[in-house]
From TrEMBL, chain A:
Subcellular locations according to the entry: Cell membrane
Protein source organism: Xylanibacter rodentium
Gene that this sequence comes from: rnfD
Residues where FMN phosphoryl threonine is found: T160
Name the UniProt record assigns to this protein: Ion-translocating oxidoreductase complex subunit D
Subunit structure: The complex is composed of six subunits: RnfA, RnfB, RnfC, RnfD, RnfE and RnfG.
Automatic annotation (TrEMBL), chain B:
Keywords: 4Fe-4S, Cell membrane, Electron transport, Iron, Iron-sulfur, Membrane, Metal-binding, Repeat, Translocase, Transport
Identification of the protein by name: Ion-translocating oxidoreductase complex subunit C
Record-stated family: Belongs to the 4Fe4S bacterial-type ferredoxin family. RnfC subfamily.
Domain of life: Bacteria
């Protein structure tokens, strides 16, 4: 007879793993990735591939040579995910060397300086993106127009829906909004109407498909995406009702990085609150900040900053917002 | 009808109820029976026999060692071999009485007939008399924890019992002993419930059963159809529904406050199905608690089954009856895979709380190496007590006892849902147990000073 194995209970484990969750999110990003290939062709392929490979290389090198850890985390899917999300936040004509700098900042500063997977305070992909946005404002705000499949850095650029909205608010002239594609074409992808933007923001529908997949696979819960999108919808609806220079709520939620941010960036496990009450507070605050930055801030896009600001508040939310304990409701 | 369940957290582990439809067999008598002196929560018992004494089946061998205690009766006839120590489910050597089995001679006062005694036929049974008989028979909770049953029936003066809830949930994977008991002895269990209700002076009894046991639900519903006092409550499958607090929440929609509150503080007395059966036997048949229904199971056992086992039987004899220990290294559990105790020896005996002997193979038993916490919050969402397991585990590992006490670590029921769910395979519950036992010690010391 063999030996008896002894340990504390539980003696069973579910089938969940870090890899399943990370690769699950990667799979959820596939529809959006395919749409970005369809709209931006070569440029999108170069940007995404560079970003993913650079993130993985930096993750591997830092783990091995600086942190000197035995077990690398390069294949757990988190670096791939950071790379993809970073790529999705970039214009498809961005030169390779800038992308590599972005990946270094995302993985090196955004993630590994804090101790690697699970320890970072801010979403690494957004750290990378915002670093590039303030360092290379010209390259990071010229958005290629969709449909130029063979083009890379030579692609023609155009105005994004968000910059049109900003112009309308600045000029106080609601007729400027007439240049916007209608919200249906924003939802299914605005290539046909000459839309421009970063890779991950041109087709809200593909991102929503990813959301449904992640909810079905129980990778994330509904709290963060729904609270962000709901808040933005309600507030922009109010603003539009008060003054029509603010775009209508459907256009607002389907444009810019809102869907990408609400579904894939704000829901990052590591940097979002640990219980559903906290997640709702976090989501509503991100929605509010997004509206404020988009309409009255210096940048046309507010999602990234809103998420980073709320990332900083996550530890505070975790300290003060606790889940409902059993026994708090004593009688019905 | 809206099928009820508890309202916070919970998981759904693979059921593996491979022995569900296997009728109970009577296990062979052991050659030697081992009776650890502490088989319940509370003070250990004091032996009343010595080496060389002759005992019969049903002879008192150890008396209650305090108020919270329960006497132990011999399950075999024979000679006391020694009063010494033996390894029990905790892995420690504990004081125990060891009896060499000779024949099978029973004490005469035990009614061994199968005839069903109903409560109506015994008007002489007052609540006090029922409680006394339960106490004398050494009945304890049969679901695992093993709290002496009579104490639950005498609530503190600050609380008032309103109902008795029979725990027929059996949410642990693999185990089917309660299910077999219901299918084979439904009438006795119902009389047992009536006895418990009379003893606790309440008019309402519930039987909570998960919907994965439709035949048991149907059988008991049919048998109680003429009795408005007893209600069978089908419950949606969810682990740990068999936890006392979760069951009370599921059945009567009341949540027991944080410890030291107990279910009777919200009016509920919870008893296991096996306990109801033992109560019936103790009160109606004058049969002390010395045998029980136990499932012997495991995917790699050649003949798993359900057994009526004399307590004190070493687990090795049960496993041999099921085709022997499978090749290679195994994990032997007293109980199921979620909350069972891994044993250090195959000679550990079946005790009052042993509802299952489960054999798990090495590849199922070995833990994966832990990865960093990715703060996915899944442990928080599955915790049935609404705690934050990741926080309790981390603070415990840093020995921050004030923090874990403030975060409610004493409410943890150690169900293991957090660790089961953790995608990073972190030993969450190991750390929480460390914190919980330390904090309990600190609280006891603090109370002792007052």
């Amino acid at each position: 007879m063999g030996k008896l194995i002894v340990s504390l209970s539980p003696h069973a484990h579910g089938t969940d793993s870090v890899e399943k969750n990370m690769y699950g999110v990667v799979i959820a990003l596939v529809p959006a990735l395919l749409v970005s290939f369809y709209f931006f062709g070569l440029g999108s392929a170069i940007v995404c591939a560079t970003s993913v490979v650079a993130c993985m290389v930096f993750e591997w090198a830092i783990t091995k040579f600086i942190l000197k850890r035995e077990n690398g985390t390069v294949m757990d899917g988190s670096a791939i995910l950071t790379g993809l999300l970073l790529g999705f936040n970039l214009p498809s004509n961005l030169p390779i060397w800038i992308i590599i700098i972005g990946a270094l900042v995302a993985i090196g500063i955004g993630k590994m300086t804090f101790g690697g997977l699970g320890c970072n305070l801010f979403n690494p992909a957004l750290v990378g993106r915002c670093f590039l946005l303030v360092s290379f404002p010209a390259q990071m705000t010229s958005w290629p127009v969709a449909g130029q499949l063979g083009a890379y850095t030579d692609a023609m650029t155009g105005a994004t829906p968000l910059s049109v909205m900003k112009d309308a608010i600045k000029s106080g002239d609601a007729s400027v909004l007439g240049q916007l594609p209608d919200s249906l074409s924003l939802l299914i992808g605005n290539a046909g109407s000459g839309g421009a933007g970063c890779l991950g923001e041109v087709c809200a529908l593909a991102l929503l498909v990813g959301l449904v997949f992640m909810l079905w696979k129980k990778i994330i819960t509904w709290h963060i995406p729904v609270s962000i999108i709901g808040t933005v919808f309600v507030l922009s609806g109010l603003l539009h009702f008060i003054n029509p220079v603010y775009a209508d709520p459907f256009t607002v939620i389907f444009s810019g990085g809102l869907m990408l941010g609400a579904i894939f960036m704000a829901t990052d496990y590591v940097t979002s609150p640990m219980n559903s009450r906290g997640q709702l507070i976090y989501g509503v605050a991100i929605g509010l900040l997004t509206i404020v930055i988009r309409n009255w801030g210096a940048y046309p896009e507010g999602m990234s900053f809103a998420i980073l600001i709320m990332n900083a508040f996550t530890p505070l939310i975790n300290t003060y917002v606790k889940p409902k304990r059993f026994g708090e409701v004593v009688k019905k | 009808m809206n099928i009820r369940t508890f309202r916070i957290g919970g998981i759904h582990p693979e059921e593996n109820k491979i022995t569900a439809e296997m009728p109970t067999q009577v296990a062979a008598l052991p050659k030697q029976a081992i009776f650890p002196l502490s088989q319940h929560i509370g003070a250990p018992t004091k032996p009343v026999v010595k080496k060389g004494d002759k005992v019969k089946v049903g002879t008192l061998i150890a008396e209650a060692g305090g108020f919270v205690s329960a006497p132990i009766y011999s399950s075999v006839s024979g000679t006391v071999f020694k009063v010494d120590t033996a390894i029990d489910a905790t892995g420690y050597r504990v004081p125990a009485i060891i009896i060499n089995v000779e024949g099978d001679e029973w004490e005469e006062n035990i009614d061994r007939s199968d005839s069903l005694e109903t409560l109506d036929a015994h008007p002489e049974l007052t609540p006090e008399e029922i409680v006394e008989r339960i106490k004398v028979a050494g009945v304890t909770g049969m679901g695992g924890a093993g709290f002496p049953t009579f104490i639950k029936l005498c609530p503190p003066p600050t609380a008032k019992a309103e109902c008795v809830i029979i725990n027929a949930v059996e949410c642990e994977p693999y185990i089917t002993s309660d299910y077999r008991l219901m299918m084979e002895h439904a009438d006795e269990i119902l009389v047992g419930l009536e006895l418990l209700m009379k003893a606790a002076k309440v008019d309402k009894g519930y039987i909570g059963i998960e919907t994965n046991k439709p035949q048991a639900i149907e059988l008991l519903t049919q048998k109680t159809s003429g009795n408005p006092k007893i209600e069978v409550v089908p419950l949606k499958q969810r682990y740990p529904q068999g936890g006392e607090k979760q069951l009370v929440d599921a059945v009567i929609r009341r949540q027991v406050p944080a410890p030291p509150a107990i279910p009777v503080n919200v009016g509920a007395i919870v008893q296991n199905v096996g306990t109801a059966f033992a109560v019936y036997q103790a009160v109606m048949k004058r049969k002390p608690l010395f045998e029980r229904y136990t499932t012997v199971t495991g995917k790699r056992l050649s003949n798993p089954g359900n057994f009526l086992v004399r307590m004190g039987t070493p687990m090795k004899e049960l496993i041999d009856a099921c085709g022997g220990m499978p090749e290679g290294n195994n994990k032997l559990l007293a109980g199921g895979p979620m909350m069972g105790k891994a044993l250090t020896s195959v000679d550990v005996p079946v005790c009052k709380g042993t509802n299952s002997v489960t054999v798990i193979s090495e590849d199922e038993a070995m833990r994966k190496s832990p990865q960093p916490c990715i703060r996915c919050a899944k442990c928080v969402s599955v915790c049935p007590m609404g705690l934050e397991p990741f926080l309790l585990a981390t603070a415990s590992s840093m020995h921050n006892w004030e923090k874990v006490e403030a975060e409610g670590i004493t409410s943890c029921i150690e169900c293991g849902s957090c660790q089961f769910t953790c995608p990073s395979h972190r030993p969450i519950l190991d750390n929480i147990r460390l914190g919980k036992s330390t904090v309990m010690g600190i609280i006891r010391a603090r109370n002792a000073k007052k």
